[in-house]
Write a structure and sequence with these properties.
It contains nine helices and eight strands. Keywords: Membrane, Transmembrane, Transmembrane helix.
Length: 291
């Protein structure tokens, strides 16, 4: 009798508990704690062109305990030193950028720069995640099935390379065919052996704002990071968080889908001190949470 009563009570309240949890996620801006954020695009975008030592000091000054490492060819001479300094200062390297362009990379062959970055990771014995994206020129004049087949082969090649370093791979939405998260999902499903992840970037999602609920629900099972940005449909592509019309609801949508971080804070502004850019974005994120 008592057991039956308890089961009946639980059955009555469970739907309400589920709604309450969903409501909590939807309102959960208080769940984006600073310790659950990291800076992104702070190497290639910095008018002061900080040295590795200066950049690590900046991260510590602001209070970041992790960051994602972007680079251009000119930074490779300093990459080993910077990643070593980050490790020595207990700053987690959540990812390293790997951009493939058909002008210099091909199936089963990486450019000298990309081979060099993998060599640096190997020499440091650094276990991290490669954020991988493919340029549009890989897919020019190809039908969908041809594009998918090509993407699968290239990502498989990169994932094998990463596994040799005990690193992981996450697919990064940039632009073109490979920048479509639904295309990336098909690549992931074709390569289950690699346990691929995904990184979603607001600043590459202007054409998909209306589709964010469907995108968030579809990719959250594979999502390892979301990079934030102020979002308007028209005008400047890069905006401080809090200066757009859509980023607040987009964040809520991802939280409601079950994604709880980490969240990227962009330094992605040409000809500006990246410290000022990061602080403006941090202030903007705080302002969204108190609105």
């Amino acid at each position: 009798m008592v057991k039956t009563y308890i089961l009946n009570v639980l059955n009555f309240f469970l739907p309400f508990l589920f709604v309450m949890v969903q409501y909590s996620y939807a309102q959960g801006f208080d769940k984006i704690e600073f310790k659950n954020t990291y800076p992104w695009c702070i190497v290639a975008y910095d008018s002061l062109e900080r040295s590795p030592k200066e950049r690590i000091a900046l991260l510590k000054e602001i209070g970041f305990n992790k960051y994602a490492y972007d680079w251009r060819d000119k930074h490779l001479d300093d990459t080993y030193v910077e990643l070593k300094l980050a490790t020595e200062n207990n700053i987690e390297i959540v990812s390293v950028w790997l951009w493939l362009n058909a002008k210099r990379d091909s199936l089963n062959s990486l450019s000298d720069a990309n081979q060099r970055i993998l060599g640096i990771l190997d020499s440091l014995n650094l276990k991290t995640t490669l954020w991988v994206s493919l340029s549009e020129n890989f897919f020019e004049d190809l039908a969908y099935e041809q594009s998918l087949s090509k993407a699968i082969k290239i990502v498989d090649f990169i994932a094998i390379k990463a596994a040799e370093l005990d690193c992981k791979v996450a697919l990064y939405n940039h632009s073109g065919w490979f920048g479509n998260p639904f295309n990336q999902l098909e690549v992931i499903k074709a390569l289950p052996q690699h346990e691929l992840g995904m990184v979603y970037n607001f600043h590459h999602a202007h054409g998909s704002i209306e589709d964010i609920p469907q995108i968030a629900n579809a990719i959250t099972p594979y999502l390892i990071a979301v990079n934030l940005n102020g979002m308007k449909k028209d005008g400047d592509k890069i905006l401080p968080i809090g200066k757009g019309d859509y980023e607040k609801e987009m964040i809520r949508t991802f939280i409601k889908s079950g994604f709880m971080g980490p969240w990227g804070i962009l330094g992605h502004v040409e000809n500006k001190d990246v410290k000022k850019v990061l602080l403006e974005n941090i202030d903007g994120l705080i302002s969204l949470q108190v609105q």
